[in-house]
Design a protein that fits this description.
The structure is a single chain. The chain contains four helices and no strands. The protein is mainly alpha-helical. The protein has one domain. Helix 1 packs antiparallel against helix 3. The chain starts with a helix and ends with a helix.
Length: 84
């Protein structure tokens, strides 16, 4: 179960790390990274606020995932399938 906790923790931290450049407005419109829909790709004035908003939710999701992975790891007697 330790390996599973480490995988969930890594995933949460990866989401958190990916969210920071979006929140800070460091990622220009591109085809690989960010909230890529037709309207955001066509207009940088829309791209940056939308990605900042989405980045905040991505940050929250990453933190919740990481904290849940750590918190549930220490629940005594929790079955592996319930943890996962």
């Amino acid at each position: 179960m330790l390996i599973l906790m480490l995988m969930f923790l890594f995933s949460g931290e990866l989401l958190t790390a990916l969210s920071v450049p979006l929140i800070m407005g460091k990622i220009p419109p591109n085809g690989l990274y960010g909230f890529r829909v037709k309207k955001t790709m066509e207009n940088p004035d829309i791209w940056y606020p939308v990605n900042a908003y989405g980045g905040k939710w991505l940050l929250a999701a990453g933190l919740v995932l990481a904290l849940a992975a750590i918190g549930l790891f220490f629940v005594p007697g929790i079955p592996l399938d319930v943890y996962s």
